[in-house]
Amino acid sequence: MAPCRNALTVALLTSGAFTQAFWVAPATPWLHGSRHFSKDVTAPLMATSETTNSNVPPPLTLEEISNKIKFEITDLDAGAYGLESKDVAYAVEIAKVDIPLGGGGIGLGLEELRRGQDGRGCVLVSSLPPEGNAAQAAGDDGKIRVGDMICYLGQEPRGMVRTEGLDFEQTMGALRRFLETGAPAITLVLKRLVFRASLDVSLSYTPGPDEESQGRKAWTQTLPMLAGSQLRKELLRAGLPVYSQDTLRFDQPYVTGNCGGEGICGTCLVQVLEGKELLNEKDEVEAMVTRKWGAANWRLSCRVIVGATNTPGTVRFKLMPQAPFTKKKP
Question: Per its UniProt record, what Pfam families does this chain match (predicted)?
Answer without folding.
Answer: Fer2 (PF00111)
